[in-house]
Predict the structure.
Amino acid sequence: MTNIPSITLNDNVSIPILGFGVYLIPSDGSTYKAVREALDLGIRHIDTAAAYFNEREVGKAIRESGIPREEIFLTSKLWVQDFGFDLALKGVDASLKKLGLDYMDLYLLHHPYGDVPGAWKALEAAKAAGKIRSIGVSNMTPKIWNEFVPQFDSLPSVNQVEYNPLYQQKPLRELLAKSSVALESWGPLGQGNPELLSSPVIADIASAHGKQPGQVILRFEVQENVIVFPKSTKPERIKSNMDIFDFSLTDEEMNRIRALDTGKGRWNPEDPGVADILRNYDVHADD
Ligand code: NAD
C-alpha cells in the first residue's frame, strides 16, 4: 500500500499531504462508496464541507471502514450562513451530528464574508472544547487575510485556496510562509481543466517518468509542500492520483512547471457580488 507522507501544521497537528475531496459527489450512496474506496486504497485524509451536503455519508464511511478513527484525518467547513459566534457554535455541532463523529481533525471557515472574526472565535472555542483538533480558513486572498487575521487571537493552521500549476498563488504563499501556515489546494487538477491536463510541458515530463499527466501535476504540488485532495469517483483514478510517491521531479522539471503560472484562477474571492451569491445558499436544507 502506498505510504503517504504527512506534514506538521503550525499547531503541531499532523496531516497527510494527500487526501481525497468529495465536492459535488452526491449523497445517493456515491459519497459513501467513493470514501470507502479511497480508505480501502490507503487514503487517510478526507475533505468535505457542510455545503457539500454529504457529511452524513462521509461520516458513515469513516465509521464503517474498520479503520481506527485516530488514523483518519477528516476536514469539514462552516458555511457563511453560520458565521457569527453563536451560529458558528451551532454549525460545528451540526457538522459533528451529520458526520456522527466526536471530533473533526480540521474545520475551516469556508468563505471569508460576514462576521468572520465572530465565527473564528467560535472555532477557537470548539477547539478548546475538544470538538476540533485544528482550525483554518479558506478562500482568503492576501488582501482578505490582512483584513481579518490580525483580528484573530490565534493563527489559522491552513488556508485552502484554488491552486494548480496554472495558478500558483505566489504572493499568498509568501505571506503564509511567514507564519508557517500551510497552503491547501482546492482544484489541484484544475477541476479537470483540459488546458492544464493536456499541457505539452506536463505531457513531456509525464512521458519521461512513465507517469500520467495528473500524477505529474499532483507530484509537483506536493513537492511544493502544498496539501492536495483530488476528487474522482473512479477507483482506477483514485488509485492513480495517490500513486505519486515513487518518483520525484528534478529541479529543472519543477522550474518548467513553475513557469506555467498565469497568476490567475477561475475564482476570485474579491469579486463584488460573490458574498451575496454564497449567502443565498441554504446549507441547512438537509438538516
Ligand atoms: P479537482 O482538481 O480534484 O478535479 C476534479 C475533476 O478532475 C473531476 O471532474 C475528476 O473527474 C477529474 N479527475 C480526477 N482525477 C483525474 C485524473 N487523474 N486525470 C484527469 N482528470 C481527473 O477539483 P475539485 O474536486 O474541485 O477539488 C478537489 C477538492 O477540493 C474538492 O473535492 C473539495 O474537497 C475541495 N474544494 C474546496 C473548495 C473551497 O472553496 N474550499 C472549492 C472547490 C473544491
The chain has one domain: 16-277. The first helix runs from residue 30 to 40. The mean pLDDT is 97. The first strand starts at residue 6 and ends at 8.
